[in-house]
Write a structure and sequence with these properties.
six-stranded mixed beta sheet; single chain; alpha/beta; 9 helices; about 375 residues
Amino acid sequence: MNNGEKSTHYYLGANSGDGFVSRFDELDCMLGLNRKIIIKGGPGTGKSRMISRVARHYEDMGKAVEYIHCSSDPDSLDGIIVDELGVCIADGTAPHVLEADLPGVRDSIVNTGDFWDEKALVAEAEAVTDLKKRIKHEYNSVYRELKGAERLKTDTFNIVDSGVKTEKLKAYTQRLIRKEIPFSAAPAPYYRRRYLSGITPRGVLIFWNTVRVLCDRVYVINDEYGVGRHVLEELRTAAILRRQNVVACLCPLYEGETLEHLLLPDLKLAFVTSNDHHRYPDEPFKTINMQRFYDNDNVRAYRNRIRFNKKTASALIDKACETLAGIKAMHDKLEGYYTRSMDFAKLEGLTRSVIDRLDGFAAE
């Protein structure tokens, strides 16, 4: 239970085996979007600080705020959305570049770089340039490590998939759909893609509290071999066809549409995957053990290969997180050069004006 809490937390970008994957275009999928403010500026110039101030403003008003965290620094915010008011604000700098699609009409850009001392930054040009190069190089290492983990996990998934009891699995899923996902009369249901989990400098982190806030009933899918994704895909399709509001939570390791969790907020219902990387910490409403839907003899026949894949993939993910921690340390140092050049009193003035502008559009 959520104890009255309203706000939710996600990532909209992921460190994956195919590089950084951005879903920040999903901001434009919000129904009734009145105003989107895009922040430009360098590292350490107060973008996350501004977003946090705006978030606190709306939390103090009692509004539900959707927080978008940075997967390379989960303590830093990349954006927030306030659905009830139709407003959002987001960091629009690389690696999740945002531009104003409807400038002035709906989208505005603010620049924290207006308040830095360029002469001070020019004096640090060599150090800043060197850090940027080193950070880029280390990110390439992260993506190689995650690509290796992705390939090993995919190999295991393919092995186990070859022994899936397809008809039994499909029959179970259809019964689950009939039982839990009714047709809705909602005139304009939404479909959103989010990341509930992230591969971060602090390991694989997942926002389980978002599930607690949105859902009273949680089906936990115990699944080490990816078989649960077949169930989740059918549930997602059914929920869309039955006009339910859907939050599809993707696996950050893969660039594509591999589902990890499915949230149906109007039904207060969730289907979440629990495995070695993210064990569901609460008491579930129901548990689905995927082992009953595949051939265990097939798994035993490949047990050495599966064991190697699992151990090595986990080690590669751990290594990627360790590399990300090193990158964060370098990024913190990079931010320091910009932070020392900033006039944060002027930034505070801009932040107040941004809040006033958002309030004005929200009131219309």
